[in-house]
Design brief:
By secondary structure, the protein is mainly beta. 0% of the residues lie in helices and 49% in strands. One of its GO terms (cellular component) is cytoplasm.
Length: 483
């Protein structure tokens, strides 16, 4: 029998469950030195904790099915001032989640006086009964400093409803946000947070993030975000009517939500997402587990060349603590060729700075087989002004589709990107079956699952129709967090 956390396709520095299906991240909160990672586990909340966002301790299930139904997605907060009255004047954790029973979705709460180890469901649940809606789920709660009240965002079909509360038990409906962005499927798992603007001291905006369910138009589930203003009761988007702002250009980053209550002295907004897609959930060729989480990412807002505010994502700095001795290449000039590097590995990070001379395409090929036939391409086309991740030859791709048939897994993912500067900075994370690729300052990110053979560990650089110069290309093998 294969040792747990060393099975085929098992990531070595991403959070995955020992066994069973992990899906939406839930209840993400930092409290008394611990990051709590709750997650969907067949209508219950699984639970893991970490002190560094890298090494996780799996704990027993936190919230399980009861007479009001299954426990669907939601959030958690620290009730510092005991507004709920649950903690005898002290502080503690409060989870806010969707109860689901007989097709009916409603919002409920539970509280923990012992750092999330045990939970008591509120006797007055549900705190927001279903108001006659088919889709009414995934509450995200935060403390709104300016109004001195709790605010809640709930997904309702293709809209977000906002509520407010003085105590987490009694909720008042406030407003609806709808009618803009991608409307191709139901909105799910909202998140709401305030971010400072890079290079603009004292300026900030609010970001409303929503995931979008499986549909034919986007060929699977995806996610989008809105930038604007939130006064504790109403969100106003400042780019309403424009093209959707996509969160991730791969296919395997869903239901991302941010950690609540990260200390002010830390100052970061950190989130992660489920590394899968509702087109093929729990159909991966992995045993005994299905699904996992992305690496944690720090969020920022920055203006692009057109002056528009865009979300930028960067890996958390803590990941650098996993680095082993770097393998450095460069400068390397790739002349209309595929260049094999003397490196092989399954779990590593890479950094590169690239310029080019009339190249039609250039990039990096990871998880390459000895004959080069099996590989995943991370590339850029200056001609098309387009980034692309190509997993058509990445290995196993016969994943069943949730709705029947075979999923469209072996495909190319694309993102627009200007090459007018003639230079790009790339950073990537390869972890057996998970690839996360960050471009520039993280303005474009691709998250993708791949299932190559374990012996396919090669690494190549390529250029077509011209030359590309990698002024540096550094690979950091990353230590396993499970050994």
């Amino acid at each position: 029998m294969t040792e747990t956390y060393h099975e085929l396709y098992r990531p070595q520095y991403h959070l995955t469950p020992p066994e069973g299906p992990m899906s939406d991240p839930n209840g993400m909160v930092f409290y008394e030195g611990e990051y709590h990672q709750f997650y969907q586990f067949t209508g219950r909340w699984g639970h893991a904790v970490s002190r560094d966002l890298l090494h996780w301790e799996h704990l027993p299930l936190a919230l399980v099915t009861d007479e009001l139904g299954d426990i669907w997605s939601g959030s958690a907060v620290v009730d510092w001032n005991d507004s709920s009255g649950f903690f005898g004047g002290g502080s503690g954790l409060v989870a806010i989640f969707t109860h689901f029973k007989d097709g009916l979705q409603s919002q409920s709460i539970a509280y923990s006086p012992d750092k999330g180890r045990t939970w008591v469901k509120y006797s007055g649940n549900p705190v927001i009964p279903n108001p006659g809606l088919n889709d009414f789920r995934d509450p995200k709660v935060l403390w709104h400093e300016q109004t001195g009240r709790w605010a809640m965002a709930v997904s309702v079909d293709r809209a977000i409803h906002f509520y407010s509360s003085p105590n987490l038990r009694e909720w008042q409906f406030e407003s609806v946000f709808e009618g803009t962005g991608c409307q191709d499927a139901v909105w799910e798992c909202p998140d709401l947070f305030q971010l400072p603007l890079l290079g603009e001291p004292g300026q900030s905006r609010w970001v409303l993030h929503v995931s979008i369910g499986d549909n034919e138009v986007t060929d699977g589930s995806t996610a989008q975000y809105f930038v604007g203003h939130f006064d504790g009761r109403r969100f106003v988007c400042e780019h309403e009517g424009s093209a959707p702002r996509w969160t991730d250009y791969g296919q395997d980053f869903y239901a991302a939500v941010s950690y609540s209550d990260i200390p002010r002295e830390d100052g970061r907004t950190i989130w992660l997402g489920w590394t899968s897609n509702w087109q093929y959930p729990f159909h991966s060729p992995t045993e005994p587990w299905k699904g996992g989480m992305s690496i944690p990412r720090v969020l920022r807002l920055a203006r692009n060349g057109a002056g528009e505010l865009h979300l930028a994502q960067q890996p958390v700095q803590e990941l650098e603590n996993l680095r082993e001795e770097p393998v450095r290449f460069g400068p390397v000039e790739v002349k209309d060729e595929i260049l094999r590097l003397p490196f092989s590995g399954l779990s590593y990070e890479f950094e590169a700075e690239v310029s080019w001379d009339r190249a039609a395409e250039w990039g990096i090929r990871v998880r390459v087989s000895d004959d080069g036939e099996e590989h995943t391409v991370l590339g850029f086309s200056p001609e098309r002004e387009e980034l692309f991740l190509d997993r058509r030859k990445s290995g196993f791709s016969e994943l069943p589709k949730r709705t029947g048939g075979t999923a469209n897994f072996a495909k190319v993912f694309r993102a627009p990107r200007s090459g007018e500067d003639g230079r790009l900075f790339l950073r990537g994370f390869v972890d057996d079956s998970v690839i996360e690729w960050f471009v520039g300052d993280g303005e474009e990110v691709f998250t993708s699952l791949v299932y190559p053979r374990p012996e396919s560990g090669g690494l190549e650089l390529f250029a077509r129709g011209g030359n590309a110069t990698f002024s540096h290309f550094t690979v950091y093998p990353l230590k396993s967090v499970w050994t």
